[in-house]
Every structure is written in C-alpha cells, then in structure tokens.
Amino acid sequence: MDTDDRWEPGSLGEGTRRFLLEHKFGMEEIVTKLNILKDEFAHLHESNPIEHVSSRIKTLESLEEKMGRKGVPADSRPSFEEIRARVTDIAGVRVVCSFVSDVYHVFDMLGSQSDLTVREVRDYITEPKANGYRSLHALIEVPVFLSAGTVPVLVEVQIRTIAMDFWASLEHKIYYKYRREVPQQLLAGLRDAAETAATLDTTMEGLHQEIRGLEPLPDDVVRSLRAGISSDAMLRSSLKHLADPLL
Question: At 153, which helix (H) or strand (E)?
Fold first, then answer.
C-alpha cells in the first residue's frame, strides 16, 4: 500500500493533509447549509431556531489520542480507511438553539436535505448520559467534490439548547482542570446542575408556547421532558409540532 494511504505518526505528510482537508471541506459544507437556514429564518420568518453555529477539526495530537482509544494507535500506521471507520468525530459542528423543540426542528431540516445522509443519531436529550449530559448527536455523511472525484465524509453534528451548551462548557472545563479525575462532590454538583438546566429548558419551552399562543404540552410530555426520557415517538412529535415555523 502506498505511503500516502497510511497515517504517519506525528507527521503532516501529503496523505494526512489530504485526509484532514477532506474532513475540513465536509465540515464547511455542513456549516454553510446551517448558515443558509439561519439567514433564511432571520430574514423570512418571525423566529429563528438557530442561535449560533461553530465548528472544529481535531488537532493532530487530539486525533492520535482518539485513534489510540479506538484501537487504531498511530504508531501502527493504520490506513485512512481504518481511521475513518473508527473515529467518526474528526470533523465536528455544534448548533446552539433557544428551545428543545428547535433542536429537533433543526435536525429534521438538515437531515432532510437530499445530498446528506444521516448515518447515526444519539439522542442524549431524551436519554441523557449518566453524568447529566444532554444534546442531540447526529453523524451526517456529506459528499465532498474534489478534483480527483467525490469523497463521502462523516461530520458529527451536535445540536443543543443554550442551557445544555452552558452546562457542557462548564463540565469540559472541570474535567480539563482535574485531568478527568474529578472529585465526587463536583460530579454530584454537575449532575444537579444538569437537572437545573433541564428544568430551565422545560420552563422556557412552556413560555415559548404561551407567547406563540399554542396549547400547553400534555402533562405526560412535560414529565418526560423533566425526566429526560421518552418511551416512544410522542415527545419528539410534540416538539416538532411546536417548532413548526408556520404555526
């Protein structure tokens, strides 16, 4: 196999540069699509479900660390196809919304675009992580058109509310400060803060409905929101209804 088809540890050889550029281009395609939606809602609709869009490509150091955790250590000189199959968050896009209903609406708008393919969805809003983390993660495949042909690239898109984003930012800073060895009392405090953030999202969703003159959510849906769980499609259906910009 050609050297350009394998990872060179700690090196930005031609193959590695091409590999990272492919992911950068895929990320930029997703960002462009989201910014088009954001501008459309800003100019043509009464409200905008997208507050902020940000993106990042993993650094060489971060990517090699993740490769090791996924069982493809850099010093084994894996092929780029091996890396692509194991590490799915090389390119990441984050979308911050005002309301939980907006999260699902943005996901539906992005996922329905004909040139994108949703490969996986992890809903940490209806099923939060044990530490309290909430967000909607989607692995979206986007075609990148290069001079040598089309390359399918996976981009991880995280969609969350302002409250979820604030909590996640705080959690990241704490884990970084303590090098992932976080004292138990801080972990308990983070879980409590996550519940507070979820309650805030539920309250703001209710106010959002009231302002728009919509019928209140049924009690069982509110309970699901507060508990961070959903036994069926009822919750998502209700939230999508609330997010409909034509209502």
Answer: strand 149-161
